[in-house]
Design a protein that fits this description.
The protein is an alpha/beta fold. It has two domains: 193 residues, inorganic pyrophosphatase (n-terminal core) (Alpha-Beta Complex); 118 residues, Diaminopimelate Epimerase, Chain A, domain 1, CATH 3.10.310. Helices cover 34% and strands 20% of the residues. It has ten helices and eleven strands. The strands form two sheets. The chain has a six-stranded mixed β-sheet with strand order 6-7-8-9-11-10, with helices on both faces. The chain has a five-stranded parallel β-sheet with strand order 2-1-3-4-5. Strand 10 and strand 11 form a beta hairpin. Helix 3 runs antiparallel to helix 4 and helix 4 runs antiparallel to helix 5. The mean pLDDT is 96. Bound molecules: manganese (II) ion. The site of manganese (II) ion has 6 residues, from loops.
């Protein structure tokens, strides 16, 4: 699907009149958000723009193979930019509350999550797209911008991870056509896939074991796993070591919803997966979070709730959709 000409024109207009850019992504960044941001970074650098790359959270280790990822900063230094581009941020504060204090003349939001609000001057939203990287690919096509090998790698990374290796139902014929074009750039896609799907840290494996061992199954086919602060301390691990743990209970045929509840000093962070019709983005929204129909999450301060109450509230909320 093409992006509306109106959006392309407006994108050009905003980019042309801007000298300084602030690019940012959602908390707990993934390959799609990072790949999208870094490919637009590369585009803007070719136009000789000044670009600051900001991520509130540190990137997961396996994303450090992405070209330009070393340029991403976790600190805010300046308070004024011509244009902000938000990648996969349903609201600006999804990039971290500090971002909302910066002054921007223009805001652009690019996203494929249905929870996205139209807060920007230009909202490039396509809820049917399996990834934001696909939206960026189409944007580049329509801008007549020829992508290079680095951009091909970045967009491929976003697509292959957000489609679950071309496995999730939103994947379509166009996804494969786009990937076929990207692969013409002859990067080592097999090595990238090893990096995304076959690599784990000691901490990741130990936390997976702990989560599965303590997994509870609730009526209505819901699996709940908890990783406490003590678990993270024991393995000298952090939230960045919990990648893909939430997916494991979904391998059990009867399980319709999987929940991973993680605890740190200040907050609980909750991730959902679901099968079929059960819309866990609605469950996450009820707690101020967001995401997709079958993959979502939210965070809540420990001052607002304790773990027992939170578990009950989550299970009650899910029950509405079973
Ligand atoms: Mn995405």
């Amino acid at each position: 699907m093409k992006l509306p000409a109106k959006e392309i024109n407006k994108f050009n207009k905003i980019v042309n009149r801007s000298k300084t850019f602030f690019l940012t992504i959602h908390l707990n960044p993934d390959a799609d958000a990072v790949g999208s941001m870094l490919s637009i970074y590369s585009y803007l650098k070719k136009l000789k723009k000044r670009v600051y790359l900001y991520s509130h959270d540190k990137l997961p280790q396996n994303l450090s193979v992405l070209p330009y990822s070393e340029k991403i900063k976790n600190k805010i230094t300046e308070r004024k930019y011509d244009t902000a581009i938000f990648f996969e941020c349903s609201t600006p504060d999804r990039a971290g509350s500090e971002v909302t204090k910066i002054e921007f003349k223009n805001k652009i939001s690019i996203d494929h999550h249905r929870t996205a609000k139209r807060y920007a001057d230009l909202n490039i939203l396509d809820f049917k797209s399996p990834s934001t990287s696909e939206i960026i690919f189409r944007l580049f096509k329509q801008l007549n911008f020829k992508i290079d090998k680095n951009i091909a790698m970045l967009l491929y990374s976003g697509i292959v991870t957000d489609t679950g290796r071309f496995h999730y139902p939103q994947t379509n014929d166009k996804t494969h056509l786009i990937v076929s074009e990207l692969l013409k750039h002859k990067f080592n896609f097999s090595k990238l896939n090893d990096n995304f799907f076959l690599k784990a840290t000691y901490q990741n494996i130990k936390l997976l074991g702990r989560a599965l061992e303590n997994m509870e199954i609730f009526p209505g086919k819901v699996a709940l796993m908890v990783l406490s602060q003590a678990d993270f301390k024991e393995f000298k691990a952090g939230f960045e070591h919990t990648e893909s743990i939430v997916n494991y209970p979904m391998m059990i045929e009867d399980i319709k919803v999987s929940i991973l509840l993680k605890e740190d000093d200040e907050k609980y962070s909750v991730t959902f997966r679901s099968k079929g019709k059960i819309d866990v983005s609605k469950v996450a929204s009820a707690f101020g979070g967001g995401g997709h129909k079958n993959a979502s999450g939210f965070k809540i301060s420990k001052q607002k709730t304790d773990i027992k109450e939170l578990k009950k509230r989550i299970l009650d909320e899910i029950e509405k959709y079973l």
